[in-house]
Amino acid sequence: MAEPRSRAQRRHDAERRLAQDVDVWVATASPDGTPHLVPLSFDWDGAALLLATPSGSPTGRNLAATGTARLALGHTRDVCLIEGAVEVLDLDALPADRGDRFAARTGFDPRASAESYSWFRVTPRGVRSWRESNEMAGRELMRDGRWLD
Question: Under 8 Å CB-to-CB from 32, ≥6 apart: which residues?
């Protein structure tokens, strides 16, 4: 087992993953508590993750109804969990260059779909990251939307 990373290294690794990864697991729950989990492509702008999914899908309905999501990057031995507040945007509410950036990064442009999509901007409120059991202590990297020192 490798030595545990410092909080600074974990934050660096999490931010690198946000900048480089293209897909994220998105966990939501309906207002009655029914869980739902799907992978979605995303774009990170340094402050929030931009997702797109059909407005009427379980994920789209859950994100709009509850305004929260839990996202997971990585695999079970190098995980980054993000809890975030969700803002729902109509497709035409986003500046064209931001939508173009999403399409270029993900290889998918929801604006070109015949299905009704929405944008979902997820602003992290909490971030935790760990690899092995020796990194469980100090796994909290962000609380209340602020990176911890």
Answer: none
- pLDDT tens over the chain, length 149 residues: 889 999 999 999 999 999 999 999 999 999 999 999 999 999 999 999 999 999 999 999 999 999 999 999 998 889 999 999 999 999 999 999 999 999 999 999 999 999 999 999 999 999 999 999 999 998 999 999 999 98
Tokens linked to 143: 């609380």
Q: What number of H helices and E strands is found in the chain?
A: 3, 8
Q: What is the pTM of this model?
A: 0.94
Domain map (residue ranges) of the chain: 7-138
Distance CA 78, CA 83 (A): 17
Segments in 34-82 forming alpha helices (H): 58-66
Torsion region of 53: left, alpha or beta (phi above 0 gives left; psi -120 to 50 gives alpha): beta
- Domain 7-138 class? mainly beta
